[in-house]
Amino acid sequence: MFCPLVCLWPLLSCLPSPMPPILPPPTPCAADSTPRPAGDAVPHRNQKPPTHRQRCRITTSSSSSPLSAARVLIANDPTPRAFSALFKAASSSSPSPSLGSQLHAQAVVRGFLGDGDNTILSTAVLNFYASCREPDLARRVFDRMARRNAVTWNALIKGYAQAGRRDEALALFRCMRRQGGVAPDKYTFPALLSGIGRNHGGGCVQELGGAVHAQVVKSGLDKDPFVGASLVSMYAATGALEDVKVVFDDVDTLDPVVWSSMISAYINCKEEEAALLTFYKMLCQDIKPRQFVYSSLFAICGSMSMLEMGRQVHAHSLKNITDKDAAMTNALLTMYSDCGCIDDAWRVFESNDIVDVISYNSMILALGQHAQPKEAAELFRQIKFSGLIPDEVTLLNLLSAFNHAGLVHEGLHLFDSMLDIEGIKPTYQHYACVIDMLARSGEIEESMKTIKEMPFEAETSLWRIVLGACSKHGDIETGMKIAEMLFEMEPYEPTNYILLGNICARLGRWAEAEKVRSLMEKRGIDGDDAFSWIEMGQTTHKFGVDDRSHPISEEIYRNLDRLIGSIKAAGYVPDTNFATHSTEKDRREESLRYHCEKLAFAFGDLASPSGDTLRIMKNLRVCGDCHSAYKYFSLVTGRKIVLRDNHRFHHFYNGACSCGDYW
DNA sequence: CTAGGGTTAG
């Protein structure tokens, strides 16, 4: 039995939460990317020509690449069987279409695909093209075949499904029995379902899913773990958690993959606690977890900022996983970053010997969120030396690092050179990031201009970003215009009202602020309640605004009052511009005093040894007055404080914040 | 000759 994670914090009961990460001492990135042996050249030389058996074996031998195996094979009078094996080998690891078509040509030249019974070899060729995401080429092979068996159909269905061509995959599925006279088997359903729902949400998928599920039951395959796992993820993609559970209950539960798809299903449906409990149940059944499960668990712990749980899961993975895995390691890196531990994230990155682009992307993202744009840029520079190629996410993450830090120049420069230098065409998200950057830095006009000029239609979320910038810079005219537009497009989105109200409040136009508020009330709209939380050992403590529900609430308030006394003595002045909710001046200061992030700090300060770093999370953007108070908190208590809001991390130390007050 | 689950991005 695997160590059960301290019994998974008796039943949990955790928190919802938003996004990203934190902090500090720049380890000049020594990412000594392991240079890989150049190319897949040079076949291993055998002194004697290989025997027939050797020829078959050589094609699947894992020690030589498909290309070198192919060279040896072609030089040695291959048989059709050997060709099949070679196609199989070529399909598995990042298939190269050109190698495939050369082999295909060789097979044709040798007459292996001419006529007669070549079903197996043709299917191997077909499967090769399907694996290359070239279902149309696979289809051409398919159409020329004299005979097709279930394997042939399954391979082609998989080809279309994985290329995201759901309708064609389904059409083939229907033809299979009717025209092909072949019944679907336990390979068919996973092939069909693997592509459905994933990229294509939407209602029709759900109906189709139900119909396919019915076929599964009819075929008596509902116990099969492969079929079950694919059904689980199909239903999860549509959010149909009830159906997921039905499938899970039917299926043979000794299979680890079924468990990991169940865990992912809960994550997809935003049931993180259930996902953790499922992991626990899995351990209780003595099922050994694999890398996949840990990636999912790290993602949960990160997104919910459960550092202690994350550490335990990490330790657990070290005991149970011996092979390193890029995806798992990347998830681990992100988990530490999301929990506010940027130096642990660094450690994971630097000790990782299976770095891929996503590793770099994740680390660049983390650095950006933790206000270390220089390090992010340096890492970007290093990608080239590692033999990896930056992708659009890389560029986006680096842009966003510049954005967080207000490095508008660098950001614009990068954006302008994306296409020419990196060969990556800016997507909507790149534009959105740049527009955000311009607006937040005060270039609101310029950002509006960019919105008009970009080759995409702006979504409401982008307008909301600009509205937020108007609020920050007190541009009430533009703000009003955008707000009115947004009120029409999405009349029930609370953020729009709140942002406009904030503009008025910041400019001291209290009557108008009040008007916005009453409009909101009239329409029955509620903003999200703000809350903050802090983890102490295995317990998470959550605070709302003016919250007195904590068991030691009295002490917390007393400590906060004391702290505010000392920070005032140190120079802190409450910024009542952030008190948007009441109109009388002295009440405004009071309303700031017990903001949830201040309560969480006061608690953390009480509950942990002095000098400890405190990590505090907030579900919404951190309030400006609290940001200022936190700087003084770090000064008077000598603590490091990491504050995560829904956007980024702030690291407070010695009276200053890592964001340099730009946020 | 065919199959299921995971990681970055707002």
TrEMBL record:
GO biological process entries: plant organ development; RNA modification
Query: Positions of the PPR repeats?
Result: 149-183, 255-289, 356-390
Q: Name one GO molecular function term.
A: zinc ion binding
Instruction: Give residue ranges for domain DYW.
Output: 571-663
| Residues of the signal peptide | 1-16
Q: What residue spans carry the region label Disordered?
A: 26-64
InterPro entries for this protein? DYW_dom, E_motif, PPR_At4g14850-like_plant, PPR_rpt, TPR-like_helical_dom_sf
Where are the bilayer-spanning segments? none
Question: Which PANTHER family did the record assign?
Answer: DYW DOMAIN-CONTAINING PROTEIN (PTHR47926:SF530), PENTATRICOPEPTIDE REPEAT-CONTAINING PROTEIN (PTHR47926)
| Protein name per UniProt | DYW domain-containing protein
